[in-house]
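To whoever picks this up:

The nightly regression suite flagged Flavin reductase family protein as changed. Nothing in the input moved, so I suspect the structure step. Input below, exactly as stored in the fixture:
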Amino acid sequence: MFYRPADGHGLPHNPFNAIVSPRPIGWVSTRGTEGHDNLAPYSFFNACAYVPPQVMFCSTSAKPDRDDTKDSLAQIRETGVFCINIVEYAAREAMNATSEFFGKEVDEFTAAGIDRAECETIACSRVAGAPANLECRMTQIVKLEGATNFAVFGEVTGVHIRDNCLVDGIFDVLTFNPLSRMGYRDYTVVREKFELKRPGE
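Regenerated output under the current build:
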């Protein structure tokens, strides 16, 4: 099969995000200038640089009460900061609950019954007890093709690691089993790993 996205795929459901998978989930927490906390998952997310450490996520839809975007990006525009919370398999239901389209005044931490803690380097809440949290200062927002597509880049200014996720000095993902997004309504979980050395190592 071959198709041009501009012409449509002719399938019951769009295969694009199933092709580029699995994808890590950035559970983004923000706080607006009015003090409302927000928490929402984004599967167009990844780390993108080592020094300084940087991450990015993309927001690709909008809400009627936020004009051209959703709460996360709207609040990042206001404050310039956000936190990425790493999603473990055990938090899958809580993460999914925060994907609901709530009104901008709704606090997803409260709505989904998620414990929060204050960040250290930015004025923002984080998911307490998450395997890791990345406190970020927004560096740029890039408008992408499409009416509501924006890429948000941030420099990591603080890192929280849950103590039991460190094994012999290594952040061991098998201690918490990261949740990843596939296509459609499908997810997967990391339960095994293997090592490959680069040529010459």
